[in-house]
Specification:
Two copies of one chain form a homodimer. With about 230 residues, chain A is an alpha+beta fold. Chain A has two domains: about 140 residues, Jelly Rolls, CATH 2.60.120; about 80 residues, Winged helix-like DNA-binding domain superfamily/Winged helix DNA-binding domain (Arc Repressor Mutant, subunit A, Orthogonal Bundle). Helix content of chain A is about 45%, strand content about 25%. Chain A is built from eleven helices and eleven strands. In chain A, helix 3 packs antiparallel against helix 5, helix 7 packs across helix 10 and helix 8 crosses helix 9. The first copy, chain A, is elongated and about 55 Å long. Chains A and B meet through strand 4, strand 5, helix 4 and helix 6 of A and strand 4, strand 5, helix 4, helix 6 and helix 11 of B. Chain A binds a DNA duplex (30 and 30 nucleotides) through helix 9. Chains A, B: This is Transcriptional regulator. Chains A, B: GO terms for molecular function: DNA binding; DNA-binding transcription factor activity.
Chain lengths: ~230, ~230
DNA sequence: GGAATTTCTTGATCTGAATCAAGCTGCCGG
DNA sequence: CCGGCAGCTTGATTCAGATCAAGAAATTCC
């Protein structure tokens, strides 16, 4: 793989502290590839041959059942996805598709498992990452089961605002129809829900969101770190 | 802790292969306690001081937000819970409450983390367990987002039937109101949903469930290992 | 064993959200 | 510059599921 990407991958929590030789061993089997938009990188149910790292662009994780489809997550640089399947050597539970032109690093799953067994630091990092992922899904589950769609949307917007350090105005990072699916609603309802937040000072103009009165929205959304703090 | 419980704990995937000395080290700080029903073992948001192991009885994991409460899972012997919080040394995302008289082993979180750093086999087991937990939540998330409540119930019943090796008749393991909450519906609706499955050969008598025509129910429920096989 | 409490069920009604059906808007390519 | 097309919005309708209300069944507790 090109030398240039190594630094980015190395900087990930998962790899930053591990032994240099072990990292090299991982990188030897790794290759980096550019994909156009809308390419299905992996399909639900397939065996998990590679740990994927998104270096640029973005990837959508979806699941389907009985003709229905839902967006489970969107992965942005620089991060990995389908770590759990890699570790367990089990089939993917989600499909992955590029949303835009994306650069993806593919690390052979067998190498990840092998290095795991010889590098303590790496093992520790994987456990921390997995625990993190687990907690994120639990939070998302709580969000789904305990909140109405309007409340989910309000909290989503506040989290996005957090991402831009509290700026009153910011851009949605994903298409509305995908956001709708992620939040567990239809595009029509997302449209209406965005209107429904107007009384709390939310202005929408295309992908541009403006939160006029954060305090007002906060009072409605009632965010809690036990659901909305994806970092802890 | 009493010698007698060690064997049960040792038999768990998490501990079965680890070094005997390390296991002893873990057990030294561990104590076993009996709890009456309805005791809140841990509260949402608290720091995670112990890894818990249910030795007998059962424990319900719930989450609350803004006055609403939902059942996230029920833990039965012999298994652990809140492993992720223990590993990350982060606050619990769920509360845990005994449903019946239960015997619980408490392993100090700091010991778990310490042994993790010195025992490869244990580290490997923890990673496998965490990956397993992660995948279970993802499955549960798919269940929630892709299925109607009637479909969720049908698949739940089929999974329960699986647990008893396909016997046509079996008992529900939890109270109906808790099952309702777990499945993301109200008790009233669960009642109606159970009636709604009559056309597919489901008979209900208190906690006794009879599936007269499994093929018929299967055709309606359309289970898939990518959602319903909790083992993989 | 019987009163009291809780859980479960059933029916009636209400509501949030999905679906259906058009328009609208903005973007891409010729 | 202007079709064509995908994504978004809006309104009307339908539907699944929640809520409200009350009665029945099962448990618990004196």
């Amino acid at each position: 793989m090109p030398e240039s990407y190594r630094a980015y991958i190395r900087a990930l929590h998962l790899f930053v502290d591990m032994d240099a030789d072990h990292f090299e061993a991982l990188m030897r089997g790794t290759y980096v590839q550019n994909f156009p938009p809308q390419v299905e990188l992996i399909s639900e149910g397939e065996p998990s041959d590679f740990l994927h790292v998104v270096l640029s662009g973005s990837v959508e994780l979806t699941s389907t059942w009985n003709g229905r489809e839902t967006t489970m997550a969107t992965v942005r640089p620089i991060s990995t996805f389908i770590l759990a399947a890699t570790i367990k050597d089990a089939p993917y539970l989600m499909a992955a598709k590029t949303l835009e032109k994306s650069r993806i690093a593919l690390i052979p799953s067998s190498d990840v498992r092998a290095v795991f067994d010889t590098d303590h630091i790496f093992a520790r990092a994987i456990v921390t990452e997995l625990a993190q992922c687990y907690r994120s899904v639990i939070k998302s589950q709580k969000d789904l089961k305990l909140r109405t769609s309007l409340e989910r949307l309000a909290n989503y917007l506040l989290r996005q605002q957090d991402r831009v350090n509290g700026a009153a105005e910011f851009e949605l990072q994903i298409e509305k129809r995908r956001l709708a699916s992620f939040l567990g609603m239809t595009p029509e309802n997302l449209s209406r829900a965005l209107k429904g937040l107007q009384p709390y000072g939310v202005e929408v103009n295309g992908n541009q969101i403006r939160i006029n009165d954060q305090a007002d929205l906060l009072q409605f959304a009632k965010p809690t770190p036990l659901i909305d703090d994806y970092a802890s």
